[in-house]
Fold this sequence. Notes:
This protein is an alpha/beta fold. Helix content is 31%, strand content 25%. The strands form three sheets. The chain has a six-stranded parallel β-sheet, with helices on both faces. A four-stranded mixed β-sheet has the order 3-2-6-7. It has a three-stranded antiparallel β-sheet with strand order 11-12-13.
Amino acid sequence: MSKPKITIVGSINMDLITVTDQVAAAGETVSGTHFETLFGGKGANQAIAASRLGADVSMISKVGDDAFGAEMIKNFEDNGVVTDGIAVEEKTPSGIANIIVSDKDNRIIIIAGANGQVDKAHVDNYTSVIKNSDMVLLQFEIPMNTIRHTLDICRKEEIPVIINPAPVTELEREYFEAATYITPNEHERAQLFKMREDGLPEYYEKLITTQGAQGASYFNDGREILIPPKNVDVVDTTGAGDTFNAAFAVAIAEGRTVEEAIYFANDAAGLAVRKLGAQSGMPMREEM
């Protein structure tokens, strides 16, 4: 079987991770236990995870003209991701995420940097890459006009597309309708999608809802089915959702059913949370 071709249009960040037993309140200073600089960004995470899981992956994005940018491009190359679609934005810093990890959970502050310069013109330079994709993956850490434009291209070319609506940002109904699948977590789903008169959420037939330690759900014949994950020892949940999205995309592109794809994605996300950092624990295909 040939490798599925997956294109990610999204963000690239350097994650600045602080681990602490106690999260500081306003005006308070506490001691942390560990600091590390690791590769991240929702788009980048999904690209790395999909590549490790056996897909041919292309990344469309931008980094800054700084040391972080050069390191992040090399990281993609080391992980087999095609970097032709990554531009270096002059006089602009790379995106960063300030991540506080405490009690096996995380709090994240994002500075967009070059991610904020991923515009429609840049995407247009790689329309041929999108046209040749088996699946396109989108998140909401780049400008929403660019998200809309990419969805317009996918709709015109009839390319399957997954919208991972994180962080929560409003998007017009017509664009959610253009998605093949929509993958919010339970909080994002509640914020973005109203309940219909029949008691089902909007676009329920497209929704794949990640629910943390409970697993993930989908709808079948109007009934929500929850697929639990395997029990794992959790070190850091950063990147678990991105691993899930990438694995789900790979499995669907390979021709698996939605249920099979969720089982595969749950397993991949479970493996990913065993190490600190978004990309550190993302599994290789042979680990699955």
